[in-house]
């Protein structure tokens, strides 16, 4: 299996419940690394086969694969 780094944006209506959203993401297989309540983003990693399921978690607005960039 392939692990991918992801960023999850939380719906504005759930910003006051972001810790609950993070707990539900963990229960759905995400390894939560950072919770940024001010901007409504949760970052972490997940097996690529479980990524689609995260979009079904209540309070999740979007799930995106994180990109890394390196200077040449």
Characterization of this structure:
The chain is an alpha+beta fold and 72 residues long. The chain contains two helices and four strands. The chain has a four-stranded antiparallel β-sheet with strand order 2-3-1-4. Strand 2 and strand 3 form a beta hairpin. The protein is globular, with a radius of gyration of 12 Å. The termini are far apart. The model has no long low-confidence stretch (mean pLDDT 93).
Low-confidence stretches: none
Measured between the Cα atoms of the first and last residue, the distance is: 30 Å
Structure annotation, total helices: 2
**Count of extended strands:** 4
Question: Helices and strands, in N-to-C order?
Answer: EHEEHE
Estimate what percentage of residues fall within beta strands: 35-45%
Largest sheet: 4 strands, antiparallel
Identify the overall geometry. globular
Q: If you compute it from the alpha carbons, what radius of gyration comes out, rounded to the nearest whole angstrom? A: 12 Å
Structural class: alpha+beta
Helix % is 10-25%
Main β-sheet, spatial strand arrangement: 2-3-1-4
């Amino acid at each position: 299996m392939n692990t991918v780094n992801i960023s999850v944006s939380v719906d504005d209506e759930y910003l006051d419940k972001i810790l609950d959203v993070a707990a539900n993401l963990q229960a759905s297989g995400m390894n939560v690394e950072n919770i940024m309540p001010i901007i409504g983003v949760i970052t972490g990693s997940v097996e690529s086969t479980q990524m689609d399921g995260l979009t079904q978690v209540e309070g999740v607005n979007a799930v995106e694969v994180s990109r890394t960039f390196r200077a040449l």
